Amino acid sequence: MDKLKGYIILANPPDRAKDDSTVGSKNGQLSRAGSLTVLRRTSSKTKVGSTSSSRTSISTENDSYASVDLGVDKLPPTDTPDASHVCSIRLRNLIRRLQKEDISKEDLQRNLEYAASVLETVYIDETRRLCDEDDELSEVEPDAVPSEVRDWLALTFTRSMSNIKRRGEEKPKFKSVAHAIRAGIMVDRIYRRLSSSTGLHVPPHVLLLLKHLDEWGFDVFAVNDAADNHSLKFVGYELLQKYDIIAKYKINSTVLDTFLLNLEIGYSKYKNPYHNLLHGADVAQSVHVILNQSKLVHWLTDIEIFATIIAALIHDYEHTGTTNNFHIMTGSEVALLYNDRAVLENYHISASFRMMKNDDSNILSNLSREEFKEFRNLVIDMVLATDMSFHFQQIKNLKGLLSMPESIDKAKALSMVLHCADIGHPAKEWNLHYKWTNQLLEEFFRQGDREKELGLPFSPLCDRSGVLVAESQIGFIDFIVDPSFQVMSDMLEKIVSNLLKEQRSGSATSINEDPAYDVKKDKSTSTTSLHSSSGSSRSSTPKLLGSDGKFEFLKPWLDHLVKNKQIWKERAAKDAEERKKKEAKGENTNNNNSDTSSKTSDVKTNDSQANSPIPLNPSGK
């Protein structure tokens, strides 16, 4: 019944099939004899009140026409509220005529096509209402993880979904025509102008590390050390250069430099161990690798690529180093400003666009009004989707969309890519994952210290005197990261497979031979750059079809998830053995507490059992 939200269900008494003029008064719509009718609500109550009499008249006329004639010319448009009701009348008329064999094949075909169009319209409307289901952790068995880990999962990744989510604007029709126009403009830009930007200076030793920008194992820590704490600036610049965004949208080099430096200042504002400029650079680079390796980039327009990169760069701008729940519990200014809804995510977006309004950092100054609107809408959708409390709902929605034949909305697809990149450090190599884990825990502990000072209860994983690190990471991988990457992989395969089908049918540009994304050498940086090209040469994009004829792409994150989880399991088992040994010692352990506490560690086990440090080793041995 929830899925019919926004619709009116009219149950009418039977045995009145011949009385087609019967008119119901609810919401200005018709009731129908002997049927269960689903009608869409009108969007304005005032409009309903002012037009109910005229609509009743029109509906009565449609009813009569639907039950007597077999033409479709006078039937209401398929996307109007009356269409589903009139369609039900017409279908009943068809059934009666079929029983009497009093209908031609042509009339039957025309009416079935009309009915199919009505059903398709209702189906699409209902698909957009998938967000009405509540979040849950139903897949997590009660004993699967420690209670503290379960509490953390529930607090961080679930929320009440009683509020109505904002629906994105409907996409325009005739997309292929729009893409063709954009492609023509893109080619024209290449011939008519070059970028006025002279480019940013990237030190040679930083360039050597940026050569690995297309790799999943890219080490942002090494880049940050080499770049003197400017990894976000150089990674951001290289990504914009790689997709030729700087030239396409005439971004001045000085303005771009100021924008990237302001981003770094914002990320460094609160000196966070985890949510800092390295995290911004890492997430942006991860998004790029996913787009590039999956070939999803061929599905996107220039402005969508631009918005995706910027959304990744700004997604945690001026992060306070505390969770949304902390802001809500303390009644902070941002929590009051955004009414406890996606507090930090709303702030990141607002602060970033406010910064870009300044002339010296406005990288959007050359966008047209339409381009800016599309850019802003996509950035807002993507960054809001990084709110972890939407996690389970986001996964549910995509699983539902994957089971349907319709294509997936670009905003939803790109939001999922950014979300996975944001939580994806457990899917990286162990040495990188280990560093991110320690930094995140330190940030949690600092929040716990503040909660202790304020007399608030500790949030999950924020009590530095006792955290089950290995168990928390196992739970994080099992219930959050692994399912997310699995759904994202399925989504990417579906999208690109559909592109390949269009390619075979001749209705789309060949992905394997796409001249719009020719990989060339970038003269300014020596890193590969995805420049638009009007040439006819074959793209160096590798073949996307496997030996079985299905779309394939590399998923390096899957192996890392398996390996990292195994390492944490081994550590958890070792920690459990050490705790048992200490418990067996009894009083001897208590007598040695003073010696044990002096050997402090950044990562500790549960204080109810022991205070000895967990032996975390970056090598994984």
TrEMBL record:
PDEase domain mapped to chain residues: 198-575
Family per record: Belongs to the cyclic nucleotide phosphodiesterase family.
Where along the chain is Zn(2+) 2 bound? D316
Give the organism, scientific name. Answer: Mytilus galloprovincialis
* UniProt keyword annotation of Hydrolase present: yes
Q: How is the cofactor bound?
A: Binds 2 divalent metal cations per subunit. Site 1 may preferentially bind zinc ions, while site 2 has a preference for magnesium and/or manganese ions.
Q: Indicate what this protein is called per its UniProt record.
A: Phosphodiesterase
Which Gene Ontology BP annotations are present?
signal transduction
